[in-house]
Amino acid sequence: VKDLAICSNGMTFKNINKTRVVKNLEKRLRRLQRRVSRKYLKNKEGSKFVKTSNIIKIEKQIRLLHRRLSNIRNNHAHQATTKIVKTKPSKVVMETLNIKGMMKNRHLSKAIAQQCLYEFKRQVRYKCEFYGIEFVEADKWYPSSKTCSKCGHIKAKLSLSERTYICEECGAVIDRDFNASINLSRYSA
């Protein structure tokens, strides 16, 4: 998951989870979780775990880090959705993704869960309603990535590793996600 959103007018919203701040916070969180886990194992009495005052302190730090990460992601989603809606488009078309299917891929599931895609869609929808902009949700199986934005040719097979779209008919070379955003801007339900 490289970017949060790519618009047909060229605006790109980066993935907040790839920034230095979030990566450092997650690293700190992992260390604290390892520390508290070791403390639980050291203070085990028989089959039950004993909570010491040090464990309580570390768990409080972990809670605060979780809250901070959540606030950073939520703030980024709010800023991105506001920027999209403030450009005053006539309509916003968003693709429905097969999130359940994507979550089954164990290599991508954490990155997809951290993106908060449903929250992003919810915010775009209510902000569009507030500003009187038409919000359209494209079909889950609409071939936005496989269709050429220049000539309309649909590619039969397009793997996830192909990041640039190369048309077999007209020879157009374009970024895969930007191509999909142009096709979605022309989408009619």
Q: What summary fits the major beta sheet?
A: 2 strands, antiparallel
Global structural class: alpha+beta
In the sheet with the most strands, the strands line up as: 1-2
| Approximate shape | elongated
DSSP E strands, number: 8
Strand percentage lies at 5-15%
**Number of helical runs?**
6
| Poorly predicted residue ranges | none
Helix content: 40-55%
First-to-last CA distance: 27 Å
Kindly report the average pLDDT value.
Answer: 90
Radius of gyration: 21 Å
In N-to-C order, the SSE pattern is: EEHEEHEHHHEEEH
In short:
With 189 residues, the chain is of the alpha+beta class. The protein has helices at 20-42, 53-86, 99-103, 109-115, 117-131, 176-185; strands at 3-6, 12-14, 44-45, 48-49, 91-95, 134-138, 164-166, 173-175.
Could you describe the 3D structure shown?
This protein has 6 helices and 8 strands; from the N terminus they run ββαββαβαααβββα. With 189 residues, it is α+β, with helices and mostly antiparallel strands. Strand 7 (164-166) and strand 8 form a beta hairpin. The longest helix has 34 residues, at 53-86. The protein is elongated. The mean pLDDT is 90.
How would you describe this structure in keywords?
189 residues, alpha+beta, two-stranded antiparallel ribbon, 6 helices, 50% helix
Topology readout:
Elements: E1 3-6, E2 12-14, H1 20-42, E3 44-45, E4 48-49, H2 53-86, E5 91-95, H3 99-103, H4 109-115, H5 117-131, E6 134-138, E7 164-166, E8 173-175, H6 176-185
Helix pairs in contact: 1-2, 2-5
